[in-house]
Every structure is written in C-alpha cells, then in structure tokens.
C-alpha cells in the first residue's frame, strides 16, 4: 500500500527562521466549523480525513456521563476531566486515578495496556528518583480506560475484550462519535490507537464539528443521549485544566483561558470557543507538536478579527474579542515565538504561515 495515495500534504501553517533565512515549514490543514455544521473557514483541505487520536477522549467520556456513571459510583466531578485526559503522570493525576479505582471497583490490572512510567519528562524524572516502578496508572490514557471499564461494569458488559471493536462498549463509542460528527457510523474509519482502543478516522471538518458541539451541544440536530452530557464534560475540562494534560501543555494553557482544547498524537489538535459554539481542528503533516502553539495563537487572532464572518452578534463581540486576545497572549507567554541559544542569543523565530479562507471564498 502506498500511503502517499491516502495522504496529501497540506498548506504551510507555520515555519521557523534562523538568522535571516527560513529553516523549515510545517504544512497541514485547519477547519473551523460552527455547532450547526456550517464550515466557517479553512486553511488547506478541510475535508481531508484524519485520525482523531486523543482528541476523541471527551466524546468517549460523554456516553458514560449521560448514563449516570458519576452518580452510580459517587465519582468527583474532576474525574470527568481525567477521563478526557492525556495526563502526564503527576502526583495529583495518580491520586485521583487511585480514588477512581477505589470508587468504581475497577482493578489496575484490568487496564489493557502494559505498565509504564509517566509520560511527562519532569514527572518521569521524579518517579525514577523516588524509585517508583512502572505501573498502568502512569499510562497517559489510564483515566479514559478506568472510566470505560467502570462504564462496562455499570452496563453489565464484559470487561474482557473491552478494546475489541465489536465489544458493546466500542459500538457505543462509535455511535457517539458519529452523532457528534454528524456522520453515519459506517462512514467512520477505525484502526488501533496507541493505547489499544479503536481510533476514529473522519474528515477534519467533522472533528471541528465535534468540538463545536462539545462547546454548544444544544445546537446539534443529532439524537443521541451522549450529546446532553457534552456541556458537563466541557465544564469539567475547563474547571480542571491541569488534569486534562499538565502544567505547560498547550491544551491546559488554553483551558486556563477559557478555550476548550485537547491534543492528539501525530499532529492532531482540536479546540472550541464555548461562548460562540465554534470548533476548530488542526492537523500538522509532520506529526509533531512544536508547531501547535504558534498556529493556535494565530488561529485565535484570525478568529478574533473575523467574528462578523463567523456570525457572532455585535453585542457578543467585545467580551469574545477579549477572551480570544487573552488566550492568544497566554499561549505566546508560555511558548515564546523568539528562539534563543543556550547562551541567550536570539537564533530565530517561530512564524505563522497561513491565512484562513472564510466560507464566502470557499
């Protein structure tokens, strides 16, 4: 199979300079959608298909929340954030995961993947200094898996084989993703994610729509019981940014500034603006994360400058402009666009390289 026949390079999204020259370019694509499903803007092909990877986690949490998981097991609300998380393995992550095991009756050995050390570099160093042994709870996806196993217990589904695409749990996950994305289940491709669960492949604009509906679920026309739980998932993520990923992570920085956000592997990143019901999905072709911050900050700036094109009412724009501006500046403060050497000398800059094309021109 020639993978190049399935994946065509996108448009330049960002690049870096070194001295007076361009050093590299990150290509990819962006889709911006409102919660009704209207494509608002794009850079590159918004209909190109991509794997959601971990950006699917908030949607995967929603069915169990709608079914009463939190109430059934007496789980604290912050557990929703961890069920939606790609955590770094910090002490606060592990403490809450252990509490979730205690309350749900799920056993750590029932998680499908192998033992691991924390994903975060600082967290891994601390664990190794303390002589901690690898364990399944350190895995970045353990919050999702604990939640899904608890859902199986609640629904009397077998825990054995819960990662199998034909398992009732995974059929329910597929239905929920399809409802959020306004697709039929058979239109969604599935492969295997890094943690062993099925991973969903769908058009980038459908991923953006998923996030718009996480932010504004009442705008969705689809009939699925998971949709009403979307607001609860979003509110938990916004209330507990550090649980969703970790200190200094782009998604957590955006969440701290009121932007719903979640990273995925291999260059996938999604965000939403709850006040406007606007979702956006970014895919970087080279699969790296270093380009995300400059792209995300520029995306927020371009949205702020085009709220009229996005259909935002004039009376709502002032507060929204302030939120978008503060979020963009918060990203730049955490991820400076000026690059310096180890001696403190400026070596170059990170630069955005795209201009959104709005629906009138698409």
What does it look like?
By secondary structure, this protein is an alpha+beta fold. It has one domain (10-356): Beta-lactamase (3-Layer(aba) Sandwich). The chain is 38% helix and 19% strand. It is built from 13 helices and twelve strands. It has helices spanning 57-66, 69-73, 78-83, 91-104, 121-129, 142-155, 168-181, 204-215, 230-239, 241-244, 250-256, 292-304, 314-334, and strands at residues 11-18, 21-34, 39-43, 49-51, 189-192, 198-203, 260-263, 268-273, 278-284, 338-340, 346-352, 357-358. It comes from Paenibacillus pasadenensis. This is Asparaginase. InterPro entries: Asparaginase_II.
Which key terms come to mind for this protein?
Beta-lactamase; alpha+beta; 12 strands
Biggest sheet, open or closed, and with what strands and sense? 9 strands, antiparallel
Q: Please tell me the CATH architecture by its name.
A: 3-Layer(aba) Sandwich
Helix content: 25-40%
SSE pattern, N- to C-terminal: EEEEHHHHHHHEEHHHHEEEHHEEE
β-strand percent reads: 15-25%
CATH class: Alpha Beta
Q: What does the radius of gyration come to?
A: 20 Å
Question: Which spans of ≥5 residues are poorly predicted at pLDDT below 50?
Answer: none
Q: Write down the domain tally.
A: 1
Structural class estimated from helices and strands? alpha+beta
Q: What fold name stands as the CATH topology?
A: Beta-lactamase
Protein name: Asparaginase
Pfam families: Asparaginase_II (PF06089)
InterPro entries: Asparaginase_II (IPR010349)
